[in-house]
Every structure is written in C-alpha cells, then in structure tokens.
Design brief:
- This protein has about 300 residues and is α+β, with helices and mostly antiparallel strands.
- It folds into 2 domains: about 180 residues, Regulatory protein AraC (Jelly Rolls); about 100 residues, Orthogonal Bundle (Arc Repressor Mutant, subunit A).
- Helices cover about 50% and strands about 15% of the residues.
- The protein contains 12 helices and 9 strands.
- A 6-stranded antiparallel beta sheet has the order 1-2-8-3-6-9. It has a 3-stranded antiparallel beta sheet with strand order 5-4-7, with no helix packed on it.
- The two termini are about 20 Å apart.
- About 5% of the residues have low confidence.
- This is Helix-turn-helix transcriptional regulator.
- It comes from Bacteroides mediterraneensis.
- Keywords: DNA-binding, Transcription, Transcription regulation.
Length: about 300
C-alpha cells in the first residue's frame, strides 16, 4: 500500500530520515496524513484500489478536462472514474488525510447499500466532491481514528472484519451526506445525456454487469456500435469495453465468493452464467485459479 501511495499519489518524503508521521498502512488499507503545499503527484486511478481524501484545512486545486477546479476545506473527494485527475496542487494551509483501500475490501463494505444508491451513482460520479458541515467532519474523523487504531492492532485476529465494518460505516456516512444533498431530487434514475458515452457506460457497467456480460448490450443502450464504444474506451482508458466488463464482473465474482454462505453454483447463478462450468472457466481464465480454490484460500 505504501508503494502505491508514494509512486502514484504522494511526492516522496523530503529526506530518507523524515518520519512517516500520521501514516499507517497494511496490505488492505492505508491512511496518509498530508499537509502543506506541493504534496501530491498526478494521481493514478487503477482497478485494484479506491482512493479518497478528507480535506480538513486549506485548498486543493486540480485540472479537469473542462478547466481547473478549486475545492475548499472542509470537503470529501473520491478519486473515481471517469475523471482524469491531473496537476493536483495544495496551498500552504492544506491539511488532509488520504485513504487508500484495496478495491475488493471497499466493494465488500459497500455491497449492502448498492440497491439504494444506484439512482444517484451517475450524478455523484459527475462531481464526486462533498462540502462538509462541522458535524459531518466530526463523525468522519471518528471513523478515520477507528481505522487508524485498528490498522495499528496487527495482532488482532479480527482486524480484517473490523476494518471492513468501519469502512462500511464510513461509506454509509458519506452516502447519507449525498442523500441529504440530493434530497430534493426524484428517486428515479436520473436522465442521462446520450452524448455522454463514457460516464454512462461506466454507470451501466457497475450497475448491470452481474446480468449483462456482452459489449453489444451496453452498446445498444448507448445507441453506438460495439466497435465505436470500444474505440472510445481504448482512447480514454487503454482498454476495450470487453476488458472493462470482465474486470468489473471479476470484482463481483470475488465479492460473492467471499461470502461463506454462497457456493460456487450459487455465485454462477447470481452472475447469470449458463452453468457452474461456464462460470468456473471464466473465473480461471481471468484469475489463474478456479473459484473453488479461491474460496479455500480465504
């Protein structure tokens, strides 16, 4: 986690002897206290991690395709697709905490609220920045402190479960703020601009990949050809539509397999595969192991 943080998000410490004060991490999660100006690299989103920032003081500015944006503390930012985050700059008064988690852990934590947040996902993805009130900050800081405390408890036999449950509480807090912000909006799915192909594809993929595995289905919803859709995605993400769908489907498969109540057959049915053999073939092709072996190693 430290390597990802310092090669993709944070500039190196000023000297080898400088202490990593306020930074704690393991293979699942990392909390990195940052302050002052010029602390960030460009920031690189990948499929293995989720990254968010709790801003406590100062200002962060970043370059977006439509222009430069400045965000004032207190705020919460989720660095998510489809945005291309570049040229992150902070002022001298800036103070915040960068939270990085393994994507699988985050998806497990967020699984419980997926049906309720689906109508708002697209709108939030367009502007994943939240202005926080004082009581919001207080509640979120408590949860960050709990995460920090449990990351330090390396001998705790239930560390994974505690981190997952605390992360789930954090996700619920963030989405409660989002719901409060959007409370005047209709609970129906937002009207999506048809010319906004990439964000709409990502929205559809994350909410429908369990049920629809083919590029053609997504292309039909977007009124474009499969080749045109893949060309746009390759230009933006250097991956085809099929690659992105398979990655998302693999995430869903791993989440389901992590549930001890589900058999491999149950997971195959939940993910709408023709049968267990088809699911096992898909899973092994993309992970190098069978779903049964994946469950046994947990």
């Amino acid at each position: 986690m430290r390597e990802y943080a310092f090669t993709k998000w944070l500039k190196p410490l000023s000297s080898e002897g400088e202490k990593e004060e306020g930074m704690i991490y393991n293979e699942l999660m990392g909390l990195f206290h940052v302050q002052g100006d010029e602390v960030f690299r460009k920031g690189t989103i990948d499929t293995q991690h989720t990254v968010s920032l709790l801003m406590l003081k100062g200002e962060l500015s970043l370059q977006m395709p439509e222009g430069r944006m400045a965000i004032q503390a207190p705020a919460y930012i989720e660095f998510i697709e489809p945005h291309q985050w570049t040229d992150l700059k902070t002022d001298a008064q800036f103070e915040g905490c960068l939270l990085i988690t393994r994507r699988e852990l985050f998806l497990q934590a967020a699984e419980c609220i997926r049906p309720r947040v689906t109508p708002y996902i697209y709108r939030y993805v367009q502007a994943p920045f939240l202005t926080l009130k004082e009581d919001d900050i207080a509640r979120i800081r408590v949860l960050f402190d709990i995460l920090r405390h449990n990351l330090a408890q390396t001998e705790n036999n239930f560390q994974h479960e505690i981190l997952e449950n605390t992360l789930r509480s954090l996700v619920l807090e963030i989405w409660n703020i989002i719901f409060r912000t959007y409370k005047q909006e209709s609970e129906e799915e937002p009207v999506l601009p048809w010319d906004d192909t990439l964000p709409r594809f990502l929205y559809l993929m994350h909410t429908h990949c369990r049920f629809h595995h083919t590029v053609k289905w997504y292309a039909d919803q977007l009124c474009v050809s499969p080749d045109a859709l893949s060309a746009k995605l390759r230009k933006a993400y250097h991956k085809s539509a099929n690659q992105l769908i398979n990655e998302s489907l693999m995430e869903e498969a791993k989440i389901c397999l992590l549930n001890p109540a589900y058999t491999v057959q149950d997971v195959a049915e939940k993910l709408c595969f023709a049968d267990q053999a088809a699911f096992s073939k898909f899973f092994k092709r993309h992970s190098g192991m069978s779903p049964g072996r994946f469950k046994k190693q947990l």
